[in-house]
Amino acid sequence: MANSKIALIYQRLVSLQEELKERNINLQVMDGGIYETLPEKLTELCVKNHVTHVYCNAEYEWDERQRDASVKNSLNKMDVAFATFHDTCLVKPTEIMNLKNEPYKVFTPYFKRWLEMTLRQLPGVPEKCSANDTGLKDSEDDNQYIESLISKTNRQDSDGSDAPSWPATASEITKKMNGFIVEFAPDYPKNRDIPSIEGTSKISPYLSIGALSPRQCLFHVLQEYGEDALSPEHGAYTWVKEIAWRDFYRYVMFHFPHVSRGLPFQKHYQYFKWENNQQHFDAWKAGETGYPIVDAAMIALKQTGWMHNRLRMIVASFYCKHLLLPWKWAEDYFMSQLIDGDYASNNGGWQWSASVGTDAAPYFRIFNPTTQSERFDPQGEFIKTWLPQLAHLSPKQVHEPSKHCDVQRLGYALPIVEHKASVARTKAQFKGFLAALK
């Protein structure tokens, strides 16, 4: 997990503690350790505090499901009831099936069914509960532990040293979401691919830590625009579709658990031969590939813990289809850097880019990083922000500087691979692999 994400969790816990105090509720924070020790620790906490019921939100990854089954078994032995809520998806994975009562493997028919079901069962936002007459007494240990978390948010970590401040109170988070819905959602389809402008919601960090739910997102967008938001003609529809993609990757992980155990959705690709080139991997991570849009994106990720969605697609395509490196390396690296690191979405996105996942991009669909750069950062604004050594170049030069100047004198890298040759090699590799399966 990225240090920037850990810091956001700590900040949210501190804010949550204050919000709960207003309702006479004491927040106790426990470090559960590894999954194997959590059932015992949680059971001890319940016995100590005479707890009779435990509620939690369901997670759909394989290890998390095994963990929750162990927790339930341990608590039930002590006559403590255990129940889960399904808040991370708008529709439970078990509730959407095709006509053969089998799970969908393709997004489009899944999305059609998802829309029907969300409208039918979307509850409203509950009323705010009143404060308790009495609450649990604050524990000095609890307060000291949470105070120690505050100090941890101030550390300077390499993957978030220049990270922007992310609000952490419930009111600020809701304001950020509603601000996007009201001001930017109508233009989302035309602005979401431009990394130099504020065209995306940037609420994914809050979804990833449970500070916002997809149900809240859909409720507020419907409150603002009604069912027009679910029409393809409305700008908010594209944003709603992204929420559905998030659900879909959890759905895939639930029904096809092998994807959460390091295997590709299309299992035959576990035998595909990727390049074992550590030098190229290090250059990609460091933003030294010689392709400015890729390098600027990777440097921004390292320094802020954040990457624009269009840039994620560009750097992933370059990694998988130009460098032909193992997608699992990059999946793990992204999770170590992203403030919004989300296991299911990250796994699904990397498998999509590598053409090994469900509903994946065909292997011959390969982004040209230079034309992507020219299209989505035409003036080079984003590139020049993160690659100041290229700041004096013209818009024509900045996308492919090695063709126009001596980049090494500027302190910039030469391209580590040539576009056309890399694309040809990748297509031949995939084509040969698939032919051998027949």
Would you kindly provide a brief summary of this structure?
52% of the residues lie in helices and 2% in strands.
Report what the structure shows:
This is Deoxyribodipyrimidine photo-lyase. One of its GO terms (molecular function) is DNA binding. The protein is mainly alpha-helical. The chain is built from 19 helices and 2 strands. The longest helix is centred in the middle third of the chain and has 21 residues.
Number of helices: 19
Largest sheet: 2 strands, parallel
Quickly give the structural class: mainly alpha
Radius of gyration: 23 Å
Low-confidence region ranges: 156-161
CATH level 3 topology of the largest domain:
DNA Cyclobutane Dipyrimidine Photolyase, subunit A, domain 3
The CATH architecture of the largest domain comes to Orthogonal Bundle
| Strand segment count | 2
Q: Going by CATH, what is the homologous superfamily of the largest domain? A: DNA Cyclobutane Dipyrimidine Photolyase, subunit A, domain 3
Binned strand content? under 5%
The secondary-structure element order is HHEHEHHHHHHHHHHHHHHHH
The structural domain count equals 3
Shape descriptor: globular
Strand arrangement within the widest β-sheet reads 1-2
Q: Kindly provide the name of the CATH class of the largest domain.
A: Mainly Alpha
What share of residues is helical?
A: 40-55%
Enzyme class: lyase
Protein name: Deoxyribodipyrimidine photo-lyase
EC number: 4.1.99.3
GO molecular function: deoxyribodipyrimidine photo-lyase activity; DNA binding; FAD binding
